[in-house]
What we know:
Elements: E1 57-60, H1 66-74, E2 80-84, H2 87-99, E3 105-109, E4 124-130, H3 148-157, E5 158-168, H4 171-184, E6 188-189, H5 201-208, E7 214-219
Parallel strand pairs: 1-2, 1-4, 2-3, 4-5
Antiparallel strand pairs: 5-7, 6-7
Amino acid sequence: MKIDYTRYPLPRIRRHANPVLYFPAARLKGGQLNYPYPHKIKLQWSSVFGNSKPPDYIDIGSGIGKFLIEMAVKNPDKNILGFEIRKAAVEWTNNVLGSERILNGKVLWYSVVNGFDFICDASVEKIFYLFPDPWFKKRHKKRRAFSIELLEEFYRILKSGGMLYTATDIDELDTYHTEITEKHEKFKVYEGEWDICVRTPQEEFCIRKNISYKRRIYIK
């Protein structure tokens, strides 16, 4: 199945979202307008995926969503759930998924720093954390979602032998991810081959421009 993306004009999507979206709902003072789902959401998987089953794959920061869409197409027997904080990107991706009748893919408007209380322990096979915003400026680094707390949630929801995939073209960010993962201590570095044939738009850009990038896999 090949999707004609020209049928789906991209809306204007800002590179960054409202700064409050990068922090847990519990830390925000008072009511916040335009904040994604609260951290204590309840999901009926029958309203998310066509087979009414929970997700097999998780895509963190799905962006425009082409990686998620293509993964869903190439893996029709797997449910893939994405999380993105830019609402316009979420709506665009879900529009493509719905229009193409791709029933095993969905994106939620959600900030992952709130955790995944709605996902059962040891239920997910793969988590993708690919080419996140590097947040270069020192005062902005607190917006990085990759943390001990997030890794603990990843570890909880992954099945035994489940995989966490990371990728970035920023050396400093790769080092940061590595240091956080080592500090967490529970994941092991996977020495096998990268087994995902679908590329994100950023990875395709790196290949076209001959920009080096690093890919890593961690296993529970």
